[in-house]
Design goal:
The chain is of the alpha/beta class. The chain is built from 10 helices and 8 strands. Helix 5 crosses helix 8.
């Protein structure tokens, strides 16, 4: 399926998010739509799956894949994750697969996620996370940023941004630790040239599943 080929993620948020029939799911940076289509199956005909992406090419591919899958409870919307064209308190679950680390304003992303979630709604994303402090030279490397490396938040930064946005019950669960060869492969996949910073990141960069909850209204 084209959707699978266009999925460049770092985990499987649809399997970990514990989706339920009838829920509305929003995928941030939905790409070719694989996680949206998988979510649509899980929430069933009474539920809804929305994909948000900023590129016309990916939206066109996602809609082609939607048509091929015959999914009627799916919608793909153009927009950015820092300013989501989604109504307040309209989503039960937010998922994302290795996209938030690419944002230049992650604080806005967390605030927007909190805004669009219903009270009691769940934030359940897979992302790249850095353990401890990232070397300044790596953080400033634009090529490594494109490779989902230098834009990664530390686990402590991720938790703090979620707390500041209003989220509770925050949990960051490492799912895979990256060695030097794997980090270099991430950079190479984004077309990044050979980088001396890669070796300094080995063992401290990881995929993680990040869970949080928007508190219920009082």
């Amino acid at each position: 399926m084209d959707a699978v080929l266009a999925s460049l993620g770092c985990g499987n948020p649809t399997a970990l998010a514990e989706l339920h029939a009838g829920e509305t799911v929003l995928d941030l940076g939905s790409g070719g739509g694989i996680d949206v289509l998988l979510s649509a199956r899980r929430v069933g005909p009474t539920g809804r799956a929305i994909g948000l992406d900023m590129t016309d090419e990916m939206l066109a591919l996602a809609r082609k894949n939607q048509a091929a899958a015959g999914a009627s409870n799916v919608e793909f919307v153009k927009g950015t994750i820092e300013s989501m064209p989604i109504p307040d308190a309209s989503v039960d679950v937010i998922i994302s697969n290795c996209v938030i680390n690419l944002s230049a304003d992650k604080r806005l992303v967390m605030q927007e996620a909190f805004r669009v979630l219903k009270p009691g709604g769940r934030f359940a994303v897979s992302d790249i996370v850095h353990r401890g402090e990232m070397p300044a030279t790596a953080r400033a490397n634009a090529d490594l940023w494109c490779g989902c490396v230098s834009g990664a938040l530390s686990d402590a930064e991720y938790k703090l941004l979620l707390e500041d946005a209003g989220f509770t019950e925050i949990d960051i669960e490492p799912t895979r630790e990256y060695g030097e060869a794997e980090i270099r492969a991430l950079a190479d996949g984004a077309g990044a040239p050979e980088s001396t910073e890669v070796a300094t990141l080995a063992g401290s960069l990881m995929s993680a599943f990040i869970r949080a909850k928007k508190p219920n209204a009082n």
